[in-house]
Amino acid sequence: MNFHVLTLFPDMIEAGLHTSVTGRALKNGYIHLSAVNIRDYSKDKHKHVDDYPYGGGAGMVMQPEPIYLAYEDVTQNMEKKPRVIYVTPQGSVFNQSMAEEFSKEEDLIFLCGHYEGVDERILEEIVTDYVSIGDYVLTGGELPAMVMIDAVSRLVPGVLNNEESAEFESFHDNLLEHPQYTRPVEFRGRKVPDVLLSGHHGNIDKWRREQSLKRTLERRPDLIETAILSKEDEKYLKKLKKGLHESE
Prior knowledge:
The chain is an alpha/beta fold.
């Protein structure tokens, strides 16, 4: 899979993604990354890529031409028009379903804005998806782009050493992951649940599923509405909710 990031800070992208899991995936060729410096496509002798907004107002706006020239260069050998993700707090909030959808693409282009934003005409010209990582404002789109690339990369075959890791982490079936424990058996008076030491895989699986349901209900009840639930899950949730109401 090929990731292309149109940015004013390519070093930030390169440094952030050439580490840990994504770094190993890049080294092994499971994913490919090109961090394209928009400033390289400026025709201004001082390499300016921004200007004052028409109509007045504070701050500067990124100009359309350097971005378009960078986009044109990146896409010139592609067989089809790629998805171009503009990172903006005005977009749809990124989630695991979106990551799974993006992971099926051969090429993804991320456009990272700065200053007061980007000229609307370039957005209309090239952008296919407007995506946010949350309802807050950052200084630029680089960090959100790296967050999304990390999440998408984990779903690319071969990137993770254990294929089950991607399938059964948080948000599998739209539920949060169950608690995890490792050695020692006891830490500061807190013990690993006995069921995990029992060696009974059926009981362990049942405990983990119930803990996943409980954690989701407590921390992200909004996810329950769209979770994939069995009849046993629904029965256990009903029991949990009854207990919560009785304790109020």
